[in-house]
Write a structure and sequence with these properties.
This protein is α+β, with helices and mostly antiparallel strands. It has two helices and ten strands; from the N terminus they run αββαββββββββ.
Length: 163
């Protein structure tokens, strides 16, 4: 009788352990699936990590942070703009050349500008990128963006602590 109870107890424990192991495995698989979903939804189609501020550079074939590694152009109507989402950015190819990549606000993809020869502006349709006191970006005859030609954002505020 004691052995039957002991065998029954061991049998119940084994079944309980197996069930717990199966539940744990299912939970691990669900977590892995959720992680994969998060990783996929956080990257664009080129694999750039969107939440970290990376964008795909067509010109250099890599993920970059445009606000750190590109020349910033500010809206002509607000040169002291501190909202980086309203700025345009220029990236040149690593090997130089006559191509410039322009990232415009509210555009999903960047635009490649081409200049026919050195000393002339880069062009794309009715857009022109002109090197003048930094860079000027025009659409038709209207200056839309301009900047000093320095890489990264400029400091527009004061470093003094306000009272």
């Amino acid at each position: 009788m004691k052995f039957k109870v002991l065998y029954l107890l061991v049998f119940v424990l084994l079944i309980a352990c197996k069930k717990w192991e199966t539940e744990t495995q299912v939970e691990k698989e669900e977590l892995a699936s959720q992680k994969d979903t998060l990783n996929l939804s956080d990257k664009d189609e080129d694999g750039c990590l969107i939440s970290a501020g990376y964008m795909w550079s067509q010109l250099n074939k890599e993920c970059i942070k445009v606000y750190e590694s590109a020349i910033t152009l500010y809206p002509q109507t607000n040169q002291n703009n501190e909202d980086e989402t309203l700025n345009a950015y220029i990236v040149f190819s690593k090997d130089g050349g006559n191509e410039a990549e322009v990232f415009l606000p509210n555009f999903e993809k960047s635009i490649i500008f081409i200049r026919p020869m050195e000393g002339q502006p880069w062009k794309h349709e009715d857009w022109q990128l002109i090197p003048w006191k930094g860079f000027v970006l025009k659409k038709g005859d209207t200056i839309v963006f301009s900047g000093d030609g320095e890489i990264g954002p400029k400091i527009t505020g004061s470093d003094k602590i306000e009272d």
